[in-house]
Design brief:
2 domains, 7-stranded mixed β-sheet, 367 residues, 11 strands, globular, 14 helices, Rossmann fold
């Protein structure tokens, strides 16, 4: 096991509740020793999917654990599998001080976390993220949820883990398309960095321009630094606004558009990151159209997104349906859609005085 990076998330609203994010190589082999430093659980339920089970189940030897293996895909983040996790916890007689572990990507993390938040009104919960998207974003911050037929993540809670255990070694088996889907969230952090309230100046935008090849080559030092930067920025936001009363909404840059894309395609056409990358481009176009950013910044941002080749070219949606889906977005207030849009280099703002035509203008070039 290589030396790991340790980052702490502190939440003042919960009397300085904090948890560690451990990032390093070859951590899975020591998972039993590591997780038992963070929980007093006697029994564990490990939830994963078929893909991860085939690859890594044999490496995670946590004593007194039962396994639940689910099908792989966003469409399985649903009420049926939520109930299945709860049924399995009951079957194995897990108690309130026992622990449910999410071993997988964002779908497994969200679904399992929501079950842990519900079981006996909350049992211990640990994240072991296995995709880049989960490692840089979804495993941190306590947002747990399942999808509803009318919207993504409409049923959920805020429930923080006891530990996030990130083994970057598992990324070597991640398909390129899934690596890119995680990079969409990384790009998001490059565009919101100055608004996160973090005292450190990472210049993530420049870091991504300078280290593209090392990132795709999964250089361990570069990947570890990338995860550390993104998690530090997210932790900075979460520490100030755990339950999205204000600042935390900036983490949804591009997501209002993206969730419409995902809902209209039943989560089967695009990965979450592909939808987010398209959504970020639309958010930039909206910001340009309403005069919040310069043409130079717009073009440099588009160049960075295109350089990482994440956003698919062109799609076909009914504009009216696309627009109506946005009203189911969790940021909507008082019958108005709120958009996170750039307002300067690596800076964003939330706007709600956007007309329907301005939304149409921001998406038409992508239709």
């Amino acid at each position: 096991m290589t030396q790991s990076i340790e980052l702490k998330v502190n939440i003042p609203e919960k009397k300085a509740y904090s948890y560690d994010i451990l990032t390093g190589q070859n951590l899975l082999i020591n998972a039993d020793e590591i997780v038992k430093k963070y929980t007093k659980a006697n029994k564990f339920l490990i939830v994963t999917n078929e893909t991860i089970a085939k690859l890594y189940m044999s490496e995670v030897n946590i004593k007194n654990s039962a396994w639940l293996i689910l099908e792989d895909g966003e469409e399985y983040k649903n009420l049926e599998n939520y109930k299945l996790i709860l049924d399995t916890a009951v079957e194995h007689k897990l108690e309130r001080n026992d622990c449910i572990i999410a071993f997988g990507g964002g779908v497994i993390g969200d679904l399992t976390g929501f079950a842990a938040a519900s079981y006996m009104r909350g049992c211990d919960f640990i994240q072991i993220p296995t995709t880049l998207l989960a490692q840089v974003d979804s495993s941190v911050g306590g947002k747990v949820a399942i999808n509803h037929e009318h919207g993504k993540n409409l049923i959920g809670a805020f429930y923080q883990p006891k530990l996030v255990l990130t083994d970057i070694s598992v990324l070597k088996t991640l398909p390129l398309r899934q690596l890119k889907t995680g990079l969409a969230e990384v790009l998001k952090y490059a565009f919101i960095e100055k608004s996160c309230g973090c005292p450190l100046n990472y210049r993530l935008f420049d870091f991504l321009k300078q280290n593209k090849q090392e990132i795709f080559d999964l250089n361990p030092d570069i990947i570890s630094k990338l995860i550390d930067i993104c998690c530090t920025l997210k932790a900075s936001v979460v520490n100030q606004d755990e339950t999205e009363k204000g600042l935390r909404a900036i983490l949804n840059l591009g997501h209002t558009f993206a969730h419409s894309i995902e809902n209209l395609t039943n989560y089967t056409t695009y990965t979450h990151g592909e939808a987010v990358a398209m959504g970020i481009k639309m958010a930039f176009k909206l910001a340009l159209n309403i005069g919040l950013i310069s043409k130079d910044y717009f073009e440099s941002a588009m160049e960075l997104i295109e350089d990482y080749d994440i956003a698919p070219a062109g799609f076909n949606f009914d504009k009216e349906k696309f627009y109506e889906e946005m009203f189911l977005d969790k940021k909507a207030q008082n019958g108005k859609i709120r958009f996170v849009v750039p307002n300067g280099s690596s800076s964003v703002v939330i706007v709600s005085d956007v007309t329907k035509q301005q939304v149409f203008d921001s998406i038409e070039s992508f239709l």
